[in-house]
Amino acid sequence: MATDAHSGSSGTSPDDPVHVDGGAHLDDVVDEHDVVLVDFYADWCGPCQMLEPVLERLASETDAVIAKVDVDENQPLAGEYGVRGVPTLLLFAGGNQVEQHVGALPADRLRNMIDEYTE
């Protein structure tokens, strides 16, 4: 049986993006997993919609957890992280925010960013 070298209290990362409902939920996700890529998005945002399948693939192919935060439903949380445009991607490693990017990034760049913190 293979073991996950990056197991948090939850053991493994989900194979689908996790939809975050509020700051406490995001804190829990970040605390429970080593690497979390958070996508602050809006349903009306074209680049966000283009990024969706990329993030779904990354969720199933990497050890990182992909978390999604709807900025329209979580405006205070978006404000707390200084989100001024969507999509905004935040990367957490070891419970700390280590990267922040505004705009849709290509799949290979996202994968490289995740791999930098999961190896």
Automatic annotation (TrEMBL):
Keyword match Transport: yes
Matches recorded under Gene3D superfamilies: Glutaredoxin (3.40.30.10)
Location of the Thioredoxin domain: 1-119
InterPro entries, sorted: Thioredoxin (IPR005746), Thioredoxin-like_sf (IPR036249), Thioredoxin_CS (IPR017937), Thioredoxin_domain (IPR013766)
Polar residues bias spans: 1-13
Keyword Electron transport part of the UniProt annotation: yes
Pfam families in the record: Thioredoxin
Region Disordered, annotated ranges: 1-24
A GO cellular component entry from the record: cytoplasm
GO molecular function: protein-disulfide reductase activity
Keyword annotations of the record: Disulfide bond, Electron transport, Redox-active center, Transport
Protein name in the entry: Thioredoxin
